[in-house]
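User: Predict the complex with 4'-deoxy-4'-aminopyridoxal-5'-phosphate.
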Amino acid sequence: MDYSKSIAFMRDRFVPFVDAHVSIASSPVLYGLSIYTVFSLSWNEKEKKLYAFRLKDHFRRLVSSARIMDFNSFAETWDYDRFEKMVHDLVKKNNIAEDALVRVTVFVDALLAGTKIHGLPMALSAYVYPMGEIVPRSGINVCISSWRRNSDNAIPSRAKVNGGYANVALMKNEALVNGYDDAIALDENGAVTEGTVANIFIERGGILITPAVNFDLLEGITRDSIIRIAHDMGIEVLERAVTRSELYIAGEVFITGSSARITPILSIDRREIGTHGDGRIGPITTRLMEKYEDIQRAHIKDYPEWRLNIGV
Ligand code: PMP
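Assistant: Here is the predicted structure with 4'-deoxy-4'-aminopyridoxal-5'-phosphate placed in the model:
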């Protein structure tokens, strides 16, 4: 799929991707005043069907981000039914029959409006793009970032606001320049929060642990799915504070996200994770990776409420 030749949704209609523009004087360009979500489309080759994963939850999170950022007119013009129809049409117009991602952005659609938000018009854009590898699926080597995650009273990490991504971009940049694949973000008090675009889980003594949502992190929909799947597999999951040194001694560590999917972490600050030390992915991570993939593609029928058969 060549997204540059695709059809996008912009404001209230479908247009060629190359014609979907915002002005150089617009609030999202000038101040990062936009919110977004990315969800996956998974292709089932046997059934020749495409499934969107947890679409309603992605819409709900968009609504939450809008609420936090006071994008008040968004909820007046968009409800879930309209959103779902837009996604159906987008998939249909682009004849999607492969794994893909959809990015939906809601932006303050005003020119030279300064940093004002409340009462200004909001517009929605959406486009489909290929499910590339934002990080190697086989596993990544990460560092602890020297930057700190933006705190709830600065730019809430819970809101998926584009301007806030300058924070994790600094972390990702630092990691890449220093020869790592990605970074782990600590909060201002030194607690582990998440990766740069994914949540984090560690395994200790057969128990999965992930930072609780009252730390500065995005409430990932994949994170929520993994908590439930692991629990249903009989694996205990704790949501609590995670400290830096626990990362170094964990048996397994992985990150989760709609784009990152489930990606194992092989080393942190050059300390190899787990007892294998041979690049093998741990057993719990492997089981969860397989199950999550099967659920998304409807290879197994569990969790039907998470999938929406969409388009072809
Ligand atoms: N944290 C951050 C900062 C992210 O950008 C993402 C990706 N959306 C995630 C976590 C994972 O969220 P989700 O599982 O909903 O994609």
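The pocket of 4'-deoxy-4'-aminopyridoxal-5'-phosphate is lined by residues 38, 168, 194, 197-199, 218, 220-223, 256-258 (CB under 6 Å).
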